[in-house]
Amino acid sequence: MRLTLLAALTAATPALAQTPCGGDFPAWVKGVKAEATAKGIPAETADAFFSGLSPDPRVLKADRSQGVFRKSFLEFSKSLISRDRLTRGRALADQWDAIFDRAEAEYGVSRGILLAFWAFETDYGAVQGDFETRRALATLAHDCRRPDLFRPQVLAALEMHRLGEFDLNTTGAWAGEIGMVQMLPGDILERGVDGDGDGLVTLKTSVPDALLSGARMLQHHGWRAGEPWMQEVILPDTFDWDLTGLDTELPAEQWAAMGVQIRGGVLTNGLPASILLPQGRKGPAFLVYPNFRVLFDWNKSFVYVTTAAYFATRLTGAEPYLAGNPDPALSLEQMKALQTKLAALGHDVGAVDGILGAATRIAVQKEQARLGLPADAWPTPELLDRL
Fold this sequence. Notes:
peptidoglycan lytic transglycosylase activity; PGBD-like_sf; 7 strands; Lysozyme-like_dom_sf; Lytic murein transglycosylase; 49% helix; 387 residues; signal; mainly alpha; five-stranded antiparallel beta sheet; 18 helices
């Protein structure tokens, strides 16, 4: 029933669905309310949901400035992973052992991955965000940067309110995510799990609901049961750096034949895998499998996903990575200058934002190869000068 209702809410409604973003906020609200009631939301529910709402400038500021993702992998991982966070994660794994076993049995998702996202998203539920969720969603849906993403989330939150699973004073992240593992209302409606059997899906207060909902969402996005996501590796000095990066996949045993060695583990033969060098050939090296790619459906940031995947391996017994001695990272202005030059050469780097994301890394590697530099996707001042 929940899926049917969500499909009805998010389906295009001729005329009503054309209400533009931006402009007068009360007029925009009136349009969304009309769309919601046309799709079966009671008028009184819509009136209560939008009562007293106005755009939140803090949300727009947060949406425009996500500078934390400009950190390098080593900086980012050191800022998020601590001995205390590891210790608490392992203790919670024991405390909620039956729920983690259920997540793996029903959805195939490792406890390490669920613990990593639980830790990074809300510090195991302790910091779930203080933004008023309905106001945050309305602000982002009204804003013209990503209305197609957030307008359906407003309608989903309305439906959750009708079901009794969304209080009007609900708070969460600035982008509208709710609960211990931070899921958007549409994902909660589609893939929320009543893990504690109380008849409701409440991700803010129920650990079973939150963990099982997160597991179900990962399964929906393609998580493969019983398969690894990441292993640290040691590469030979003669390795062909052109073969590194997410756009090259080879069978794991083929990497082994090239001299790739698993550090503290066993190679998983038969699986496609890529060699990932988050800070180039002089830094840590990982072999990543199809499950690693699924994590980008949870968070689009390359450095966040790589760090979460690595933390999940630590929580399940892996040793700390070999940090190596990578070349220094470019400054913010240098990275923007590099992205500008790469875009001028015809590469798709997305926004010129100073963030070394997946698209920029691919462009860097291609230019390194063209210029005869080690093509490890880690930008250096030498590359910037050569361009």
